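Re: that backbone. Tokens:
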């Protein structure tokens, strides 16, 4: 495997056995994600984009093909702490402060209290939550809670960040702000990010590569390499280049949605 490739899927498939018969969640998925890329997965509900992300995180086990994360099986990558995972909901424990929520994985991993404190301060600063460590989740807005969730995933300094539609429940103004903040965070940390979204503008704004998926069963319909510069102000969404990429994504979603077995 090329040393720059951190996630590699070859003919990946996943079939769930149910009482109503088999459900083909993924079929023949082949994709390389290189170090430092920001890759978004977009497609209709049921296209397998979250399932694919869960396979990377060893939360689901493929039934065919191969998948490696940092040259290892997803399970070995999990044990090696190769990735952090950000879910759709912030998932913060209400009885723990923001700081103690972020420190939780560090506690489980056995980091010293001194190291925990150092890492906490660093990631709070990264997500612009400095001074909020002693607050409880209910004292923060939804957007701030989701930033705390990102900080928790960054706390043990994994090379890969897996993000499952983390801003989907937020209003458009907050979402735009967090999109900008996430791009700045990516630029500062140089992490490899795999990001699931239903939003075409979000996928185009954030990504170096956009993977358009089709349902029945989930497969890759198109892979679009972005030609946008890495530094992207929000008003880049009005540019002809941005609109052209968005049109290609939309066309791929329409064509892919009609792609039958």
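Recovered sequence:
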């Amino acid at each position: 495997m090329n040393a720059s490739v951190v996630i590699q899927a070859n003919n990946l498939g996943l079939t769930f056995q149910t009482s109503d018969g088999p459900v083909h969640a993924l079929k023949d998925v082949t994709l390389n994600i290189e170090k430092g890329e920001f890759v978004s997965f977009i497609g209709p509900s049921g296209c397998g984009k979250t399932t694919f992300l869960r396979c990377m995180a060893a939360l689901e086990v493929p039934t065919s093909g191969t998948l490696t994360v940092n040259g290892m099986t997803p399970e070995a990558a999990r044990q090696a702490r190769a990735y952090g995972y950000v879910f759709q909901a912030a998932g913060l424990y209400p009885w723990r402060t923001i700081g103690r929520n972020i420190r939780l994985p560090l506690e489980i991993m056995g980091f010293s209290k001194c190291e925990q404190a150092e890492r906490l301060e660093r990631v709070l600063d990264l997500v612009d939550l400095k001074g909020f460590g002693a607050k409880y989740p209910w004292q923060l807005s939804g957007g701030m809670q989701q930033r705390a969730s990102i900080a928790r995933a960054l706390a043990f300094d994994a090379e890969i960040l897996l993000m499952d539609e983390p801003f989907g429940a937020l209003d458009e103004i907050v979402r735009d702000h967090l999109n900008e903040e996430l791009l700045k965070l990516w630029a500062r940390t140089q992490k490899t990010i795999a990001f699931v979204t239903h939003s075409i503008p979000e996928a185009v704004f954030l990504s170096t590569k956009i993977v358009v998926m089709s349902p029945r069963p989930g497969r890759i319909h198109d892979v679009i390499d972005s030609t946008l510069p890495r530094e992207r102000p929000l008003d880049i969404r009005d540019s002809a280049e941005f609109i052209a990429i968005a049109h290609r994504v939309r066309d791929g979603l329409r064509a892919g949605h009609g792609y039958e077995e």
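The radius of gyration is 18 Å. DSSP finds eight helices and nine strands in the chain.
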